[in-house]
UniProtKB/TrEMBL annotation:
<dbReference type="Pfam" id="PF02880">
    <property type="entry name" value="PGM_PMM_III"/>
</dbReference>
<dbReference type="InterPro" id="IPR005841">
    <property type="entry name" value="Alpha-D-phosphohexomutase_SF"/>
</dbReference>
<keyword id="KW-0597">Phosphoprotein</keyword>
<dbReference type="InterPro" id="IPR005846">
    <property type="entry name" value="A-D-PHexomutase_a/b/a-III"/>
</dbReference>
<dbReference type="Pfam" id="PF02878">
    <property type="entry name" value="PGM_PMM_I"/>
</dbReference>
<dbReference type="Pfam" id="PF00408">
    <property type="entry name" value="PGM_PMM_IV"/>
</dbReference>
<dbReference type="InterPro" id="IPR016055">
    <property type="entry name" value="A-D-PHexomutase_a/b/a-I/II/III"/>
</dbReference>
<feature type="domain" description="Alpha-D-phosphohexomutase alpha/beta/alpha">
    <location>
        <begin position="165"/>
        <end position="263"/>
    </location>
</feature>
<dbReference type="GO" id="GO:0008966">
    <property type="term" value="F:phosphoglucosamine mutase activity"/>
</dbReference>
<dbReference type="InterPro" id="IPR005843">
    <property type="entry name" value="A-D-PHexomutase_C"/>
</dbReference>
<dbReference type="InterPro" id="IPR036900">
    <property type="entry name" value="A-D-PHexomutase_C_sf"/>
</dbReference>
<protein>
    <submittedName>
        <fullName>Phosphoglucosamine mutase</fullName>
        <ecNumber>5.4.2.10</ecNumber>
    </submittedName>
</protein>
<dbReference type="InterPro" id="IPR016066">
    <property type="entry name" value="A-D-PHexomutase_CS"/>
</dbReference>
<dbReference type="Pfam" id="PF02879">
    <property type="entry name" value="PGM_PMM_II"/>
</dbReference>
<dbReference type="InterPro" id="IPR050060">
    <property type="entry name" value="Phosphoglucosamine_mutase"/>
</dbReference>
<feature type="domain" description="Alpha-D-phosphohexomutase C-terminal">
    <location>
        <begin position="400"/>
        <end position="453"/>
    </location>
</feature>
<keyword id="KW-0460">Magnesium</keyword>
């Protein structure tokens, strides 16, 4: 398996050859590069980095390697232990730290792990900084500290509770009205840290919790990406328990999906739509999502009198555009909620709390709430790349062919038709072209996708 190096960090499968997988040597190398980067960009005598991990099996091993590498560089570490991506993100500025590392491969299966890198604001690094860290790693230009200048470790296991308190204190979160509704909710924590923090949050909001796969042992009971094909167990349990709805998070708790009271998927794309609908109903403002996200967010935003903008794919791109447009909520169609009133990072806790408050205020079922939103359907396809396929030529040809349509070339090519759209882009992490379409019906979305797959293959000569 190829080791994937990107501006946001490094990820790969555990074991195997150095440089091909995420081996102990690779973990030390990239932790060294990150620490070196921080030291090169600071005049402070002593730096501090916050570290947390999800519950995957390789977590303790990678965690020990990374912590001790930073100590060797003379950097102090605040160790949160078992944690979540958004928890580490809020801890960095609260601790006045110089950066943060989350040890998680997010929604990837258990054989994967990764180092996600944060700046002093608790936000993902931008492209320029990420590129510098990769250069430092490649050159292996590290300088470690002498014995009298080693860093120190401070353990702090309180941050999950601090995170919950921060969410409950948000002005638009109303735990009292939620408690009055006496909701019953099933939680699938995919046997990671979400199995601890989400039930805790719900209980503090007066919600009855039915736990499913909430033991943080790292043995994921199903593919941890919260997609319909992986969630048969919770869909069934929501009906059996006569629950109001179900909650599913990925291993590091930055992606959030809901199951309606009828056992059907609420839709990952509609997590952000529902939360934005509530926030916009209380606070006028703008929204942002990436170009591969549902048009429903644009519809809801305009209904509330706001303006919607689409960014290139990637959380750092969404955050950058949110800041530029003063967006009050944004995120990605994969179930990622970014609410600046809390922090600039995808946060499932924020999403759960806003969603519950919204539902309690409306006093309707989750299925009824989903039915109240604009109905769009997506088709997500891909074409495997070969050395013979010229992606740039394909995208250029498509841009020329559809030049009379509403086109964006910020990230690949997105073509907006009156009632549907298609987004074509080369993946940042896999040798594929992604073809995403959306239309008023599943059949229309599928037909549109098939048409563009055929057109791409024709241009590519495959």
């Amino acid at each position: 398996m190829t080791l994937i190096k990107s501006i946001s960090g490094i990820r790969g499968t555990i074991g195997g050859k150095v440089g091909d997988n995420l081996t102990p040597l690779d973990a030390v190398k990239f932790a060294s590069a990150y620490g070196t980067f921080l030291k090169q960009n600071s005049n402070k005598e002593k730096l501090t980095v916050v570290i947390g991990r999800d519950a995957r099996i390789s977590g303790p091993m990678i965690h020990n390697l990374v912590v001790n590498t930073l100590i060797g560089l003379g950097i102090n570490v605040i160790d949160l232990g078992l944690s979540t991506t958004p928890t580490v993100e809020i801890a960095v500025p609260l601790e006045k730290a110089d950066g943060g590392i989350i040890l998680t491969a997010s929604h990837n299966p258990k054989q994967w792990n990764a180092l996600k890198l944060l700046n002093e604001k608790g936000e993902f690094l931008n492209g320029d900084d990420g590129a510098v860290i990769l250069e430092i790693a490649e050159a292996e230009s590290f300088h470690f500290s002498d014995v009298d200048s080693l860093g120190e470790v401070t353990e702090n296991d309180a941050y999950m509770d601090i995170h919950i308190d921060e969410v409950l204190n948000l002005p638009l979160v109303d735990a009292e009205i939620v408690a009055k509704r006496k909701f019953k909710v099933v939680v699938d924590g995919v046997n990671s840290s979400g199995g601890i923090i989400i039930p805790k949050l719900l209980e503090q909001m007066g919600v009855e919790v039915v736990e499913l796969y909430c033991e943080p042992n790292g043995h994921f009971p199903h593919n941890p990406e919260p997609l319909k094909e992986h969630l048969g167990d919770i869909c069934k349990l929501v009906i059996e328990e006569k629950a109001d709805f179900g909650i599913v998070v990925d291993p590091d708790v930055d992606r959030l999906a809901f199951i309606s009271n009828d056992g059907e998927m609420f839709g990952e794309e509609y997590t952000l739509v529902a939360c934005a609908d509530y926030v916009l109903s209380k606070t006028k403002g703008n929204t942002v999502s990436n170009m591969s996200s549902s048009r429903a967010l644009k519809d809801i935003t305009e209904k509330h009198g706001g303006k919607y903008k689409a960014s290139a794919v990637g959380e750092v791109n969404v955050v950058t555009l949110m800041k530029e447009t003063n967006a009050i909520i944004g995120g990605e169609g994969n179930g990622g909620i970014i609410y600046p009133e809390s922090h600039y990072g995808r946060d499932s806790l924020v999403g759960v709390a806003l969603f519950l408050t919204h539902l309690a205020n409306l006093d309707i079922t989750v299925a009824a709430l989903r039915a109240s939103y604009p109905q769009y359907f997506m088709s997500k396809n891909k074409i495997e790349l070969t050395p013979q396929i010229d992606v740039d030529l394909i995208l250029k040809s498509m841009t020329e062919k559809y030049k009379n349509e509403n086109i964006s070339i910020i990230d690949g090519v997105k073509i907006d038709f009156p009632t549907e759209w298609v987004h074509l882009r080369k993946s940042n992490t896999e040798p594929i072209i992604r073809i995403y379409t959306e239309a008023p019906s599943q059949n229309e979305a599928d037909v549109l996708a098939e048409r563009f797959v055929s057109e791409i293959k024709e241009i590519a000569g495959i």
